Amino acid sequence: MIHTKVRCREITESDVEAIADLLTRGFVGRSRNYWIQGLRRQAFRPVPEGYPRFGYMLDDNGTPVGVLLLIYTARKIGEETAIQCNLSSWYVDPAYRNYAPLLTKIAQRHKDVTYLNISPAVWTWPIIETQGFRAYSGGMFFSVPALTRPPRWSKIEVISPHAKQIEGLSEDETELLRRHARYNCLSVVCRTPQGTFPFILQAVRIRRGFVAPPAMRLIYCRDTAEYVACAGRIGRLLLRLGKVSVIVDSNGPIRGLVGIYSDRRGRKYFKGPHRPQLADLTDTELVLYGP
């Protein structure tokens, strides 16, 4: 079949309902409400000037037939403001697959942007690498933080979506924790004699056959060493919430933590000028759309 009116264009707010229908059709197991919630979050979040709010679509005479969601974020790297783009959900109706390269080409055209692919299927890893992407996280460490001794004279605080300025944190970090609390993440601050350390965690379900152990994913910390230092205190809080494990992006076993490292899944890729920081998945598809 020849589609003479297919074009690639930016997704607008008026396209959201139709894009949700397309994604629901393309991703078995994801409800329409899942996509609507994430698209609404994208609609209201700040986006760096000059970049698309939602991403791009293939348009056949007004009907969406393909989509690539993009999540742009401005990040401070030293004194520089860098632009990061999470290449999120991609789907093209089978009859239009020959137009799919239009989406990927336009989505990755900015040489000064760092592009992330944080949820690639294992079978796509070789394909992604041929496109110039490099792995920055080789796998995941499944830690059991409650088995680590908590730091002496420490305490932990849960941060609400409406918290005021948090003592010991910058305004930017305070807003980061508040914002992710609104995204149904668990934002906490661990206070020790060595300082005040922010963390963001997200509930996940790890399914292996009939077993689905309750776990959390570490979405944010300044440095993995800070998580190691505060793991015991975090672990005791999580036990009260019925959670046992915390998944940490890593490139091998993490010294000072009890757990298991696996490189069979969880690889994360980037392409561009700035290598992403481990344990920083803030404002990505994982929090905007959910696990």
Automatic annotation (TrEMBL):
One of its GO terms (molecular function) is acyltransferase activity. Gene3D superfamilies: 3.40.630.30. Keywords: Acyltransferase, Transferase. InterPro entries: Acyl_CoA_acyltransferase. This is Acyl-CoA acyltransferase. It comes from Bradyrhizobium neotropicale.
